[in-house]
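Changelog-adjacent note: as of this version, every example in the card shows the full chain rather than a window. The one below runs 260 residues end to end.
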Amino acid sequence: MHSIAYDDVLDRIIVPNQFAQAILSFNGGAAGEQAPIRVIQGPRTQIKRVDKLTVDSLHHEIILADDGAVLVFSSDAQGDVAPLRVIRGPDTKLGNGTSPHIAVDPIHDVIIVSTRELLIFDRNANGNVKPLRVITGAGGRPTAYKGLLFATAAGGGRVGVWSVDDSGDAKPRWMFGEGYQVRQIAIDAKNSSVIVSDRLGVVYTYYVPEVFAAPRQSAQVEHGPSDEGRGIAPESPMAGLLGRVSQVLSNVVKGTDIPY
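Full-length structure tokens:
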């Protein structure tokens, strides 16, 4: 399992099961050996090797990248059901046999898929459609927040911030990081922070108030880790979940203490 998402409206934890070719939804308070409350699985789903997904809590949808396609399901889907929408075909630039990272900005109605570049699609796109925009200077692990697009910069060792309106070889508007191998990026907008985990289970927190104060107008600025805002619970449930999971993996936390 290389992905986990939390629906803060329905209070559900959603995970992909690549070997069962399924999407599993659990109650947010589930503990111990509990069965999922919903399972999306079967030939009509078109799920083949799902490994990564995201949740659109605003529109009650589960979005996943699977085998060269983007599949969109209702959050209440159950059993062997067809997707609501499928983005697939040569014009999409999604390729074949891949399960890339994916993000959604429900406010600006875009889905972002990372291949060797960032492909930005209309959220309601369906079929063999071209991306609205392609950012060629970005890497992977995208996370979107109110028009901001956080992803690894080219080379994968640093985190850059773009606008969802950017395209082409756009330079990131902000850049931070220290050359580690990024595994996940989460947003703590309440505390103006970005939380990054690396492949060793270390968690870095960057306090970047200017990113959230003027999301589309600043020039490039670089930052190091900060412990400002320590001890305040994050606004984003996924940010808190990422922090707790990463601390289980490693007791070494650089930059901040994860609040409980």
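Structural remarks: The two ends are 24 Å apart (CA to CA).
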